[in-house]
């Protein structure tokens, strides 16, 4: 079963899904922040974040199956981390997985590049803001976002001698990607990872996103 709209699999790297939770990536390239447009949804802000899920004993063990298996060991035991870029509280633009002990920023940068390439979405053309927490406050991440045309809205660490200014009103929308994670974790196969292969776990994430969108069609 295919994952999302397109899956990128390279040797030694985690699998990546670029999707729109039931909407095709092609539709993203035509999105606008103009309220008068006829698009299905409006893009104004992209939220970048990650969440950690526990890995069930059935999701680990001898490497008998071929393919990436992003399962790591951290203080919480065996875990997998889901990295996601979301357009709102119900729309995932792209997502990937990594071992639970990996840092957020490197995978966030890789995902941002993949999403921008796969959707042909340029932040400057759509005047998009990229909202993320302090895990992504490094110069490399903020510079990449700016190079891709996004306006990085990332708060500086509290101990910086020369902190930068950021739009605090836009930053309030960071909760949207967190709310999407909460909706996803309502599905047992996402809340706990039971699958050894990344492609299977990503497939269940895709199914959960599609089901949640279909269920919410008639929900305010």
What key attributes describe this structure?
about 220 residues, alpha/beta, about 20% strand, globular
Mean pLDDT reading: 79
Low-confidence parts: 1-15, 19-39
How many strand units? Answer: 9
* Ends distance: 31 Å
Dominant shape = globular
Query: Helix segment count?
Result: 8
How would you characterize the largest beta sheet? Answer: 9 strands, mixed
Rg measurement, Å: 17 Å
Q: Per DSSP, what share of the residues sits in E-state strands of 2 or more residues?
A: 15-25%
Summing up helix and strand content along with how strands pair, one would put the structural category as alpha/beta
Helix/strand order: EEHEEEEHHEHEHHHEH
Helix content: 25-40%
Provide an overview of this structure.
This protein has 220 residues and is an alpha/beta fold. It contains eight helices and nine strands. Strands 1, 2, 3, 4, 5, 6, 7, 8 and 9 form a nine-stranded mixed sheet that branches. Helix 4 links the parallel strand 7 and strand 8. The N terminus is likely disordered.
Topology summary:
Layout lengths: L5 E3 L7 E3 L6 H4 L16 E11 L16 E3 L2 E12 L2 E9 L4 H16 L3 H4 L2 E3 L7 H9 L3 E3 L14 H4 L3 H10 L3 H4 E2 L4 H18 L5
Parallel strand pairs: 3-7, 3-9, 7-8
Antiparallel strand pairs: 1-2, 2-6, 3-5, 4-5, 5-6
